[in-house]
Amino acid sequence: MSGIYIHIPFCKQACHYCDFHFSTSMKKKDEMVLALAKEIVMRKNEFKNDVVETIYFGGGTPSVLTNDEINFLISEVYKNYKVSENPEITLEANPDDLSTERIFELSKSPINRLSIGIQSFYEEDLKMMNRAHNSAEAKKCLEEATKYFDNISLDLIYGIPGLTDEMWKQNIETALSFGVPHISSYALTVEPKTALRKLIDTGKIAEPQDEVASNHFMILVDTLQKNGFIHYELSNFGKENYFSRNNSAYWLGKKYIGIGPSAHSYDGEKRGWNVANNSLYLKSIQENILPIETEILSKSDRYNEYIMTGLRTIWGVSLERIEKEFGLEYLDYLQKQSQKFLNDDLLSIENNILKPTVKGKFLTDGIASDLFYLNLEE
After folding, report:
1. What is the pTM of this model?
2. pLDDT tens digits for 300-350?
3. How many CB atoms lie within 10 A of CB 140?
4. Which one, out of 64, 160, 216, 287, has a CA that is 20 to 30 A from the CA of 350?
């Protein structure tokens, strides 16, 4: 199984917390769509022996593209790659782009999954984050989208300053009221060089508190599991048969090609990333040069990636796989490093699989970093 990720580097406005690559100027949008299509063609030999099972439009805000532009890019994938009979084709979209007419048009396109950036149903949260939509638009688009799409995911953010436990519970209940089969939820993270960082530094917004985020996370896990969702990845919850096939492929180490500025690629042995600059990307593609840097992953890199992704998912880290793929030295190291977390009931081992406990889930990324194998000469 392989996937194609297409990065659409445009947004109507900049959310205060976002550090992804995008531009709020649409001047080069037409030029960019043609360049993305050209990169799709230029890289087809990388997947000549692979079947594409997922196509994912991420960003940025992919829903700023017209349906014709989206369909054009999908058709270029079909022309140049082997695509499975029933691929998952996801479009990330914002509520302000999803009018009733637009949703109906999308339902007639090859797009069969929507990932909608709701983030919160509270007006004050949306304004603080500088989202382009309001609460009424969020609810209206979900009401309409669920009429035409079966496979819908929505995003929610927790740990927002001023968001009480009760308000957070209401956010979750509102999301559940629309009957969506998948929810992705993330703690508000303050990244360097973002507007949010500046607003906090100048005292205009309070710093998010880990304790609040931890409480919200536990409420989220408990509420969604009681409503039939499977917590299959640290930030992702899906009903049975509604896990994101695209994201699951990342976490399980499958191959994927990233198209567009700043997009990442992975083939099992090396990782690549395109230049995170729209003008440089366009210039390079026009000159028939792929604007990509690559690195060969060492055994330690691959081990560390498996630890990070494995602990974040319900599939955990297989001790048998560690020994088979990386050797006894790595297995011994992992067992030694994980002992303190086992003693503190933050990790557990069952059927030779290492996983975080309920208590350890919110701390997964920190635990994983303590299990990484550093400075090992290959």
Report:
1. 0.94
2. 999 999 999 999 999 999 999 999 999 999 999 999 999 999 999 999 999
3. 16
4. 216
